[in-house]
Specification:
By secondary structure, this protein is an alpha+beta fold. The protein folds into four domains: about 70 residues, SH3 type barrels (Roll), CATH 2.30.30.100; about 80 residues, no CATH class; about 120 residues, no CATH class; about 60 residues. Helices cover about 65% and strands about 10% of the residues. The protein has 16 helices and seven strands. It has a five-stranded antiparallel beta sheet with strand order 4-3-2-1-5. Strands 6-7 form a two-stranded antiparallel ribbon. β2 and β3 form a beta hairpin.
């Protein structure tokens, strides 16, 4: 029988091992609550496992007569809790990644617990995973819980691609793949120096460099021991095995040295490293020191301001706000922004400006063609009599419409105005001539035709 002292001891052990508790709970009749794992059950007793210390587990047999309640978590409940951990999903998953997730624990649950009441909960999770997979298949991507469509990405591809690369870099840091993260940061800086993603990544890399240095230092410290152990292992082998092992090792080292040579040829900042190659360890340690000093000297405020200007310029370009895009770009240039990215952005803005002007001219030409087409219809003769439809007059009525204003075609406007002014002056001159003729005729008649009173005199 379990005594009160034993129950008290169980409670103390429970508190000491709380971090490693499992889901099964036993409530004794004396009020004691034990948590651990039911290992074995018989009609008279239960074998219960609990942590005696953090590293030592102990199993006790408890009589059923001393137990008030057994609260044992069922296997499907445990499986459901594990499946819940699949959400939220990570960033930048592919459709293949979703297939692997779905074929794992969710599929196993549906196969193993066909009659479980928890199947609907698992199905809800499966449906959510399938919905996300469909978005990825439609060329959307998920970054930090936010979905970005392909249309949204195309509006600002420069900053979008930088964000994707920076997200992969952060994932490498979380996986403690420090060299991969540093290599991705190097690419981020070379190709997307003026992106907001690059600016935000600097602090992460500064925090990563000491961790990578510690790993390299450990490699360097263990190098003599590693080589000594290798020699010892080779000596213990048969001659044929030793030769085969040595050949494989030398082949591996040759491939590694080739990768190092390729990195140097490409002028990469970070080269591959091997625990079996001491020069590569030392070279990377030197690079850590240089890179830390360089990044610490950066004016982060200026880097951030430049990134904001360039990001804004790209966004304005996408929104067709060309004046604002040009203004932001010029401000960035005045702060020292230069390079291929700046040149390409300027070319894109200029190209879009030219396209806008061409579209405006084309629209103006279309309007003029429509106007001319309308005038032609007004003067077209009626069928059957060959005469015009308006009072049988062949003279075209003057066009009283205002000429269309086009700031990019001022010479055309001037020509139209001059022609209309010429027509107006010709008509006025004709009237003046007719008036003069009438005046002369009147004066001649006055002198040639005399009254009767004049004859008498």
């Amino acid at each position: 029988m379990v005594t009160c002292n034993q129950s008290f001891l169980y409670s103390i052990l429970l508190l000491l091992s709380i971090a490693n508790l499992t889901a099964d709970t036993i409530k004794l009749k004396d009020g004691t609550v034990l948590e651990g794992k039911v290992i074995k059950e018989t009609p008279d007793s239960i074998d219960f496992e609990y942590n005696f210390t953090k590293s030592i587990k102990e199993t006790k047999t408890i009589k059923r007569s001393d137990i008030k309640v057994i609260d044992k978590e069922e296997a499907d409940e445990i499986a459901l809790e594990e499946i819940k951990q699949l959400l939220p999903t990570a960033s930048l998953l592919s459709t293949d990644d979703y297939d692997k997730i779905l074929a794992g624990k969710p599929a196993a649950f549906m196969a193993d617990f066909k009659t479980s009441k928890l199947k609907s909960s698992v199905q809800d999770i499966i449906d959510q995973l399938l919905a996300e997979k469909a978005k990825v298949a439609a060329n959307s991507i998920k970054i930090d819980g936010k979905w970005i469509t392909s249309e949204e990405a195309l509006k600002n591809p420069y900053n979008h691609n930088a964000l994707v690369l920076a997200t992969r870099m952060r994932a490498s840091i979380e996986e403690r793949n420090y060299l991969s993260a540093l290599t991705q940061f190097e690419k981020l800086e070379k190709e997307f120096e003026y992106s907001t993603a690059y600016t935000k990544s600097i602090d992460s890399i500064l925090a990563t460099l000491p961790k990578y240095a510690a790993r390299l230092t450990q490699y360097k410290r263990n190098y003599p021991l590693r080589m000594a152990q290798r020699d010892k292992d080779l000596k213990s082998m048969e001659a044929s095995d030793r030769a085969q092992t040595e050949t494989a090792f030398q082949s591996q080292q040759k491939r590694f040295e080739q990768r190092v040579a390729e990195a140097k040829e490409l002028k990469n900042r970070w080269a591959p490293v091997s625990e079996w190659n001491l020069p590569s360890i030392s070279d990377n340690l030197d690079t850590v020191t240089k890179e830390t000093e360089r990044l610490e000297k950066l004016d982060l405020a200026k880097v951030g301001e430049l990134a904001t200007l360039i990001a804004g310029s790209y966004q304005d370009l996408a929104d067709n706000k060309l004046t604002s895009a040009q203004s932001r770009l010029e401000n960035a240039k005045s702060m020292g922004a230069k390079g291929e990215v700046i040149t390409k952005l300027a070319e894109q803005i200029d190209t879009q400006r030219k396209a806008a002007r061409a579209a405006a001219l084309e629209a103006a030409d279309d309007n003029e063609d429509k106007d001319n087409s309308g005038e032609a219809k007004e003067t077209k003769p009626e069928k059957g009599n060959g005469k015009t439809s308006e009072n049988k007059n062949t003279k075209k009525a003057p066009d009283k419409r205002e000429p269309e204003v086009n700031p990019d075609n001022e010479s055309a406007n001037t020509t139209v105005t001059t022609e209309k002014e010429s027509e107006g002056l010709s008509f006025q001159l004709l009237l003046s001539i007719l008036a003069g003729v009438l005046l002369i005729v009147t004066l001649v008649a006055k002198f040639l035709v005399k009254s009767p009173e004049d004859d008498t005199d």
